[in-house]
Each structure stands twice: as C-alpha cells, then as structure tokens.
C-alpha cells in the first residue's frame, strides 16, 4: 500500500486554473473509478469535494472538477480564489477492501 | 447533522495499548461502513482500518495490521479502535470517518483525537 503520488505544492494567481495530479498504479487508481479528493483547511476536518473520479457532492463549487487517465487522476480548480488555499488529498479504493491516500498537495494562492 | 465524536487519545508509552472510541449520532449508524484515518504531525492522511455494517468484514492498512483492531457496537452507535504494541510512528491525530452509503468515499469526519506515543 504505497501512498499515491501528489506534488507537494501547487500555486496560482486568483482567477487562474490549477491542476493537481495523483499518480497510482494499475492496482488502485488505474483499476477503479473510485478516486476521491478531499480539501483539508487548517483547523478543520477534511471535506470530500470529488468522488468517483469526477462526481461533485451537493454544495461543492463547480470550480472543482476531476478526471482520470490511466493510473493518474487529476483535480482541477478553476477560477482560483483565496479561500481555495488549503491542502488537497486524493484517495483511491484498492482491491481487497483497502484504501490509500496521496501524500497531499498544498495549494497556495499568490 | 451527522456527528462523530472521538475520545480516548492521550500519551502512551511505546509498547503500550490504547483504545479509541467514536460515538456517532444523527444518522442510521448500523447502515454505514466506518473507518479510522490518521494524520501524523506535519504529515498527510493515512487510511488505517475499515469495518462494514455488521462487522462481518474488516480490513487494515499495512502499517497497523496485526497490532490494531477495529470493532463496532451498533446498539451503542459506537466504533472502536484498539491499538496495541504502539510505536512512536503511531503518534497522530486519529479521525473517525463515515463511508458514504453509495460507497468508497468518506463523507463525514470527526474532529479527531491525538495519540502521542512517547516515553
């Protein structure tokens, strides 16, 4: 169960779009459409913003979108806003009823 | 509103044991799979363990398998994590997490309880 690979940090200016990658293997990301993304703001608990690769829970901004190609999933934040500054984690289901998180990405709004 | 309240954290010596408790409310607890996820200081989230609705299926992360035991009491709307043979690297905030009934993602998190393993 090696952690999924995410960039340690991504930054962008307000209004820009940024993309966070999440690379796994054919046993996790590449084997299921069961990737989710979590926003973890300082002092708060993680919040799901994308599930099943590209589905958005009710109430989550449409500025967040997800996709997947092969063993790599991606989270895109469009129209970057100051309140998007946070840590973001991907997570994938792995066969055998286990899950694996990515190492996390710190998003900075310049 | 869904509530998950963890308790049982604290300072424990290496090699010791600790039991975490998560009290759930405001949803049909017996219908949801439950998980524990941890976060070491300054580190990322790590999935720890999962238990299905009737305790017939349980799974663990590699780093805790054989040392930690997850269990639940549906009559008390409570899930537990019994931790033994604790190591310094088990020091973390432990979150109780609800899996969405549609499956495979986590839709509610407790505030977490800090476990510190140190002599």
Provide the descriptors you would attach to this structure in a database record:
heterodimer; A: 110 residues; mainly beta; 3-stranded antiparallel β-sheet; B: 119 residues; 7-stranded mixed β-sheet; 4-stranded antiparallel β-sheet; 0% helix
Largest sheet of chain A: 6 strands, mixed
State the end-to-end CA separation of chain B: 39 Å
C-alpha geometry of chain A: globular
Which outline of chain B best applies?
Answer: globular
Written as H for each helix and E for each strand, in order along the chain, the element string of chain A is EEEEEEEEE
Summed up, the helix count of chain B is: 0
Q: Report the average pLDDT across residues of chain A.
A: 96
Structure summarized in a few sentences:
The complex is a heterodimer of chains A (110) and B (119). Chain A has 110 residues and is mostly beta strands.
Detailed description of the structure:
Chain A is built from no helices and nine strands. By secondary structure, chain A is mainly beta. In chain A, strands 1, 3, 4, 7, 8 and 9 form a six-stranded mixed β-sheet that branches. In chain A, strands 2-6-5 form a three-stranded antiparallel β-sheet, with no helix packed on it. In chain A, a hairpin with a 2-residue loop joins strand 5 (64-69) and strand 6 (72-77). The N and C termini of chain A lie far apart (34 Å). Chain B is built from no helices and eleven strands. In chain B, the strands form two sheets. In chain B, strands 2, 4, 5, 6, 9, 10 and 11 form a seven-stranded mixed β-sheet that branches. A four-stranded antiparallel β-sheet of chain B has the order 1-3-8-7, with no helix packed on it. The A-B interface holds A 1, 3, 32, 34, 36, 38, 40, 45-48, 51-52, 57, 87, 89, 91, 93, 96-104 and B 35, 37, 44-47, 50, 57, 59-62, 95, 100, 103-107, 109-112.
């Amino acid at each position: 169960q090696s952690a999924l690979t995410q960039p340690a940090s991504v930054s962008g200016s307000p209004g820009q779009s940024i993309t966070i990658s999440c690379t796994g293997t054919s046993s996790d990301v590449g084997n299921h459409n069961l990737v989710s993304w979590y926003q973890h703001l300082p002092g708060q608990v993680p919040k799901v913003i994308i599930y099943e690769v590209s589905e958005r829970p009710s109430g989550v901004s449409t500025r967040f979108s997800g996709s997947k190609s092969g063993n790599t999933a991606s989270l895109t934040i469009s129209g970057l806003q100051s309140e998007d500054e946070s840590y973001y984690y991907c997570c994938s289901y792995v066969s055998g009823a286990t899950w694996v998180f990515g190492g996390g990405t710190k998003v900075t709004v310049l | 509103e869904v509530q998950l309240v963890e308790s049982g954290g604290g300072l424990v010596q290496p090699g010791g044991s600790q039991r975490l408790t998560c009290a759930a409310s405001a949803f049909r607890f017996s219908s949801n799979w439950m998980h524990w996820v941890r976060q070491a200081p300054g580190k990322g989230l790590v999935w720890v363990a999962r238990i299905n609705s009737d305790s017939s299926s349980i799974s663990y992360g590699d780093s805790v398998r054989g040392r930690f035991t997850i269990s639940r009491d549906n009559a008390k709307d409570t899930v537990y994590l019994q931790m033994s043979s604790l190591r310094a690297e088990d020091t973390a905030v432990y979150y109780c997490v609800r899996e969405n009934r549609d499956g495979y993602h986590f839709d509610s998190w407790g505030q977490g309880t800090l476990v510190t393993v140190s002599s």
